[in-house]
Write a structure and sequence with these properties.
195 residues, alpha+beta, Peptide Deformylase, globular, binds nickel (II) ion
């Protein structure tokens, strides 16, 4: 498992809901937490590891020993949003780019945990921001889509650099072509097992 960078097609994928919580999924979550900590992140969405699942992991402390701060959000829904606040964001899929993003100040999020239990959380400040950022990933939305026009201008050359690097790696056959990457995503999409 590794984090994919802009403009990998997984980052533009609208993911389908997870249909089963099993050992394989628990394993994915374990690996995602490890990867998140090793890259100094505080949130990581399945799209960012090229998995088309509606799932993300969060630990706003970024500390692997703070286990009680680890949360897994499966098939999340943001059911309420209140207020508006600007704050700086970055993303593990577009490293070293930080821009102000306007988000709801307070949210209520509902999701399933790894035991299949539904839970609801009312959040504000950093946790609210992180969850809105990660939730966007599941719909193929990046934080750079949500910035001011001014910040978009600032981001443009950085994104162009990432794009050039990605296309170069594809030309060198280090990364498969987009069509192949999309085929893999389709293949991995959760689907109900039929008897
Ligand atoms: Ni991100």
């Amino acid at each position: 498992m590794q984090i994919v960078h802009y403009p990998h097609p997984a980052l533009r994928w609208k993911s389908k809901p997870i249909v089963a919580i099993d050992a394989a999924l628990r394993n994915v979550v374990d690996e995602m937490f490890k990867l998140m900590y090793s890259t100094k992140g505080i949130g990581l969405a399945a799209n960012q590891v090229a998995l088309p699942y509606r799932l993300f992991v969060v630990n706003v402390t970024g500390e692997s020993d703070e286990k009680d701060q680890e949360f897994v959000f499966i098939n999340p829904e943001i059911v309420r949003k209140k207020g508006s606040e600007e704050g700086e964001e970055g993303c593990l899929s577009i490293p070293d780019l930080y821009l102000p993003v306007r988000r709801a100040e307070q949210i209520v999020v509902r999701a399933f945990d790894l035991t299949g239990e539904e839970f609801e959380m009312k959040l504000d400040e950093l946790p609210a921001r992180v969850i809105q950022h990660e939730y966007d990933h599941l719909d193929g939305v990046l934080f750079t889509d949500r910035v001011s026009n001014e910040a978009k201008l600032e981001a443009a050359p950085v994104l162009a650099d990432f794009e050039a690097r990605f296309r170069k790696a594809q030309s060198a056959l280090e990364i498969p072509p987009d069509a192949e990457l999309k085929r893999r995503l389709e293949e991995l999409e959760p689907r109900q097992k039929t008897a």
